[in-house]
Amino acid sequence: MSLSRFLLKRSLQGLFVIWGVVTVVFGLRFISPGDPANVLLPPDVDPEVRQQVVRELGLNQPLYIQYAEFIAGIPVGDLGLSLTTRTPVLARVLARLPATLELAIAATVVAVVIAIPLGVVSATRRHEPADYGATVFSLLGISTPNFWLGVMLIIVLAVQLNLFPTSQRPVGLDTALAQIATLQFAAGFDDLVTWAWHITLPAITLGTYFTALITRLTRSGMLDELGKSYVRASRAKGLPETLVRYKHVLRNTLIPIITVVGLQIGTLIGGAVITEAVFAWPGLGTLIIDSINARDWPVLQGSLIIVAVGFVVVNILVDALYAYVNPQVAFD
């Protein structure tokens, strides 16, 4: 199967997944307590006014008609209007999306940069202090709740030592890169430093579990590959140990790591809710929490749909990259 046919097949499968998510999200609104009309109206409102608002929102229509209208609006970007701000949902979600993507990618970079070298060292120095240290680090990283870690980082590094800010995101990465692209180097690099300064603690908090997971996966994969016959044959031919480890063994170890990294990026996009809440990061996680508290179902639905789309797209790209890295894997 060619790459184009593979991508087409996976895209069609992804559409069914997104349709399932949309259906579940739509159905949750009707089984959850609370009435959307109560968000817009005071408790003592006149019943006629309440009925008029219900008609304007389309809540008096049969369920299947509401569902059909909701599905029909998604392909053209019509996710409805926010109940609290009366602004388009898609615009609100897309305004928050860059912050979440920046945090997820930064957490992934932190995890990969730390975890892969640590896993290689742990595997090549088995039963040595470096291996024990990496194992303890992995156990701590997997066991530590990220909300507790975030609070501790704020207390120690932000409050006590005043090395990092406690919260917020005064400038986005896109703004800094745009200034650099327009040759405003001084302002662009200042914004880039400010962005990196503010995202460091949230990225570490979100990426710690991911770092521990990749470290353990790299270690186990390296140990498995080091015991195979092609490694012994390469050493017998006189190839340098560094070449054997990093060109052959690590390359084969990266195949499952790529899959996990891709899946975790999608998970980080939707799982940054707690981290964003701790650091007041203006991303989708904060928007989801605010929407739940305000009973703003259209915004909540739109946020979850965008997260689902991102997860599906990342999975398709990971499958394609997996087959590219490992030519033995067919596009099927």
From TrEMBL:
<dbReference type="GO" id="GO:0005886">
    <property type="term" value="C:plasma membrane"/>
</dbReference>
<comment type="similarity">
    <text>Belongs to the binding-protein-dependent transport system permease family.</text>
</comment>
<keyword id="KW-0813">Transport</keyword>
<keyword id="KW-1133">Transmembrane helix</keyword>
<feature type="transmembrane region" description="Helical">
    <location>
        <begin position="195"/>
        <end position="214"/>
    </location>
</feature>
<dbReference type="Pfam" id="PF00528">
    <property type="entry name" value="BPD_transp_1"/>
</dbReference>
<feature type="transmembrane region" description="Helical">
    <location>
        <begin position="299"/>
        <end position="325"/>
    </location>
</feature>
<feature type="transmembrane region" description="Helical">
    <location>
        <begin position="136"/>
        <end position="159"/>
    </location>
</feature>
<feature type="transmembrane region" description="Helical">
    <location>
        <begin position="12"/>
        <end position="31"/>
    </location>
</feature>
<keyword id="KW-1003">Cell membrane</keyword>
<dbReference type="Pfam" id="PF19300">
    <property type="entry name" value="BPD_transp_1_N"/>
</dbReference>
<keyword id="KW-0812">Transmembrane</keyword>
<keyword id="KW-0472">Membrane</keyword>
<dbReference type="InterPro" id="IPR045621">
    <property type="entry name" value="BPD_transp_1_N"/>
</dbReference>
<dbReference type="InterPro" id="IPR035906">
    <property type="entry name" value="MetI-like_sf"/>
</dbReference>
<feature type="transmembrane region" description="Helical">
    <location>
        <begin position="103"/>
        <end position="124"/>
    </location>
</feature>
<dbReference type="GO" id="GO:0055085">
    <property type="term" value="P:transmembrane transport"/>
</dbReference>
<feature type="domain" description="ABC transmembrane type-1">
    <location>
        <begin position="97"/>
        <end position="318"/>
    </location>
</feature>
<protein>
    <submittedName>
        <fullName>Peptide/nickel transport system permease protein</fullName>
    </submittedName>
</protein>
<feature type="transmembrane region" description="Helical">
    <location>
        <begin position="254"/>
        <end position="279"/>
    </location>
</feature>
<dbReference type="InterPro" id="IPR000515">
    <property type="entry name" value="MetI-like"/>
</dbReference>
